[in-house]
Structure formats: C-alpha cells, structure tokens
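Two entries, shown back to back:
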Amino acid sequence: MTVTSFFNRQTPVKFEGEGSTDPLGFRFYDKDRMVMGKRMEDHLRFSAAYWHSFTWPGGDPFGGETFNRPWMHGADPLALARQKADVAFDMFELLDMPFFAFHDVDVAPEGASLKESIANLNAIVEIFEKKMETSKTKLLWGTANLFSNRRFMAGAATNPDPDVFAYACGQVKAAIDATKRLNGANYVCWGGREGYETLLNTNLKRELDQLGRFLSMLVDYKHKIGFNGPILIEPKPKEPTKHQYDYDVATVYGFLERYDLLQDVKVNIEQNHAILAGHSFDHEVRLAYALGIFGSIDINRGDDLLGWDTDQFAMNVGELTLLMHEILKHGGFTTGGMNFDAKIRRQSIDPDDLLIAHVASMDAAARGLLAAEKMLADKALEGPVAARYAGWDEAEGKAVLAGERSLEQVAERALGLNPQPRSGRQEYLEGVLNRYV
C-alpha cells in the first residue's frame, strides 16, 4: 500500500455485522460467506471505476469542478497520472476491491499525437503492473475513450471521415493491448458518439456497416493476440446523441446477428442506460440472458426526476435483489462482474465520501444477493412463474413448440376448448418480493 495522504482512513474496511453503525464498516458484505456454494466476493466480483472515482472533477452541465483533487492540476500530466494511480490503488486496498476498470485517457494523459498518447498509456500500464504484483485487485476490463475528444464529435467507427476511423482503430488497439498486458477479463466498447444528431446529414446503412467492420476487425485482432475474454458492448439509447446505434440489448443483439459477431461479443448492461431506453434494469438483464449475450454489469442508478445519465451509486435493495436473483438463477458471472460506474454527488467533496459511497453500495448489493439466495431456495418467484406456464410442459404444449403440430391441427383442437383467464397475481408477487428485502 502506498499510503498517500488523500484518504483519512489508513486501514482496510472490514465486515462488522448488521448491527454496525460505522459508515466505513460492512454490515452485509462478508466476502468469505458462502452463498450457494461460492464465496460472496466471488459472486459479486465488485470493480471500481477509474474514471468516475479519480478523473471526474465534479462538474455538471451548469457548473464546473467542485472536487479540486490534487492530481487534477499541475504542469506535468504524467506526474499527475502517477499520483492518481497511487491514490487509486490506495482506495482499492482500503475497500479490499477485487477488480477495477479503466478508459485509456482516464489513466494516462492524451499526447500531441496518437504515438505520444500510446507511450503515455504504456508508461502508466507499467506502473499498474508493478502495483498489481502486490495487490489483490485485478482488471475486470479496459476500454478506449472514443467520445470525449473533438475529433470524435461525429462518431469514431461511424465517422464520415476514414482518417478518424483509422485513429479510433489505433486507439482501440493500444487499449486492448494494455488490457491483455494487465490480464483483463474483458474488453468493453461503448459508442458514446456512435449515433446521429440529425438524419439530414446521416447515411444510416453506411455508418452501421462501418461499425460492423470495426468490431469485426477488433474480434479478429483479439484472436490474433490471444485475448481470451469477450468483447462487451455497453448499450445506451441516447445522450449525448439523439439516437445511438447500441440503443438497448435487443438492438445490440440484432446488430451482432447481422454482422456475425454473436460468437465473440456480449453486452455490458448499465441500470441508468436501461432507464433511458424506457426499460427496467431487470428487463435488460433478463433479455440478455434469454438471447445468450449476457456479459457484465455496470452497477449504478439514475434519478427518476432527471432525464440524463446521473450515474449514482446503487442503493435500491429491491432492484438489486431482482438483479442478483437473475444472475444466480443462471449460475453467476463468468468473466463479468459488478463495476461501480458511479459518481459521488458533486456536493460530496470530502475524500472519504468516495469510500463511504462504495461501502454503502457494496452492502446494498450484498443484501440483494442474500435475499435472492433465500428466494431461489424457497422458489418464491420461480414456483409461481412455473405454475403459470405449466400447460406448455404438458404433451400438447411440448408438441406445438417442437414443431410437431400444424396450424390446422392446433386450430382443430381449439374447437373443443373453452379456456378461461387466470390471475397474473402481480400484487401478490410484489408482496412476496417485499418479504425478502
């Protein structure tokens, strides 16, 4: 541990039990507790997000920096990046964090050229390598920021200028090289500018074909260098563009199928993005599992009264219970995890607020995990759902789904039927959920 002077606390946060009132003590997250045959830590696979924790200055559309972090101002960008890395790994150790995730430009400064930017990234990756030799914290995933720089204002892979496309290829190659070098479990693509602001100047088919080719090239390169983790696309419907091509899980699935990418590309799902698409988090996760493209989670929440991506720390135990119920039902994570793509509020300016936010959200997720374990053991939701669809498990239902009946045969059978509706029992099931949370 570097032991910088940034945080007031210098000893790792511990599990203290449900009776604890210490904001820097875990009440439910007991990393070694066994849940359905696996340690709690191995189920949840928490990851700290480098960008929101250490790069975001606390600004919003109407106001600038509020955090005034010491590594955000100075004449030597690489020296500041090294200082930021020291504080980051201090936080990882204080929280006993299993993983972290990063964008290239969040860990290292952009240079005057792509060559200089790659050199800066590699310099910080070398520091990460040394720190990770003595740290338990591993890399969940890396990615490239292809949306902040003005060169990407019209997209990266979908840009009308092939030189911008080429620059994006160079940046992504360096980022996945760094991810492999650090033994990252996944590589993520988020198309913040891969969309349009107006159809008046947009060729939709051309841009989709460009994006499909870009991802195909990335998949080919992944295999060439022996990167074994999946490529993950993070769906988002809008903001900053009017429409983004990775709108939601269903849209991404159709895109992957069209460009023959289903074998190598999955999705990284974020709660806040699901809400912006008009869906629930539970819907997006369930659909990803149903379509066979579930990969990983960005765990946060939005504000119901605001129409943009607020990236707040996840604290809703009921929502987290449904999330963990779905993940546990499907056997848990493989290469994915729960990445805290979340920002403390711009008024939370004390350094330890960053620790407290993570502790509270980790506890909320742990509560959801324990509740989901009990629900699955009791078949609290699985039983009623199975009963509702029981007819499809009988001989005729199975025959229809197996293609052993024609439309005429099923219609003939219907002449002797008089089916009556049955209650969906929504309020009963909502009450069942509340009993566990």
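entry 2 starts here
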Amino acid sequence: MAKFGLTAKGIVYCLVGILAFMAAFELGSSSAQRSDKTGVFQFILEQSYGKVLLALIALGLFCYTLWRIIQALKDPSQSAKGIGKRLRYAFSGLVYAALAYYAANLVLGNGSSGNGDTRQTVARELLQQPFGQWLVGILAVGTAIAGFYQIYLALSDKYKKRVQNASLKHDVENTMIRAGKIGYVARGFVWLIIGYFFLQAALQSDPGEAGGTGSAFAFLEGTSYGSYLLGAVALGLVCYGVFMFMRARHENIDVF
C-alpha cells in the first residue's frame, strides 16, 4: 500500500508542477489557478482512458491514506515527539483521504467540473462557530508551522536518514537527497502562502480570502518576477514528485 500510494502521490505532484510551470510561462492553456491537485484530476480525466487512469490514482491515494492511518495507530512511541509524529501521520491520511474521495467522485461522474474551494468551505464553517476568527487563525498558524517544518526537513537534512538507510548506490542516493531537498522547500513555500491566506481570512472574517495550492500559484504569478518564482516552485514540486517515486522504489517501508 505504501509503495503504491507513494507512486500515486508522485504522479500527482509531478503533474501539478508541470501544469504550474506551463502556466508560469504561458505554455498551452494551463492557468495557475487550475494547476492544483483538483485541476490535475480534471486534466487526467480529459485524457484518453482518463477514467481508468484517474481510478488508479484514486486507488493509490486511498492506499496512501490507509498506510498513514496504520502508522498513526500502530506506532508504539508514546513520547511527546512520537505523539506529534502520529498526529502528522493522521493529518496526512485525512488530507489524502479527501483527495482520493474527490478523485473517485470524478471517476463516477459525481464530482464538480469546477475548481474546488475546500479551504474556503472550511474557513466559512469555522467562521460561523463561536470564536470563529480565532479558530481560523489557529488553522493559519498550524498551516504555516507545517510549511516551516517542510523547509526545516530540507535544510536540516533529517530526511537523509531515511534515504541512507536504504543502502543505495552513491549516485542514486545523491539524486534522491537533492530531489527531496528541493521538493520539501518548494512544498513548504506553498504551505506558507496557504497559511497566509487563512490568516487574511481570519483577520478580515472573510472565507473568500482563504485559498489552496491554485491560489498560491496565482499569488506567486502576480508578484514581481512572478513567472520565474512560479516556475521555480513548479520545478521544485516536480522534484518532490520524483522523490516520491524514488521512495516507492528504494525506501525500506516501516512496518510496526
């Protein structure tokens, strides 16, 4: 399940990066706003045998979800650090469960043909609760922390231990480490922007300010040297996708 899930995740990230790069330099009809994961699902669906391909992606993401949930439940660590790791596993599982569900609905013809606004929906629901602005603010901080953690993983080289434990050839190991470093930085940068959107939604009490990956791409594209910034992040996400492929091929998967 882990290897199938990592492969599906790698495919999604590679396509997200490719579509975002095309949007950055106006190659084809891709747009930054529609270069997120839900936009990728639509892109796959429009290809020959698109439903079959998307069904395989959905199944892979469902397998990834199960692997993360199993890790969260079966990891024996009870320390504060271990509990934090288990919570990360559970959160990752829930995120990819939602993506798998969305992809499966598209395959079955039940999904929306438009771009998803899941984060705006979450922000809207939270803002309707007591202390709603605080709740969205906490979500913003949590999202930003997740982004900083991704960058920390890259700069601290913590992820290297997992790669080095696979006992790979030197050139393969170096390629995997470089792809992971670039990919984690790019992914963390996107999460930081999404956290900023949630913060704006909290401060202005406006769920319309929240946004996901597509909104982050559009934000980057609208800045000075936006095409180059978006292109760099897009290539970084492709590297993250390649890193997932290499993990699926070479990593010693933990079994508790």
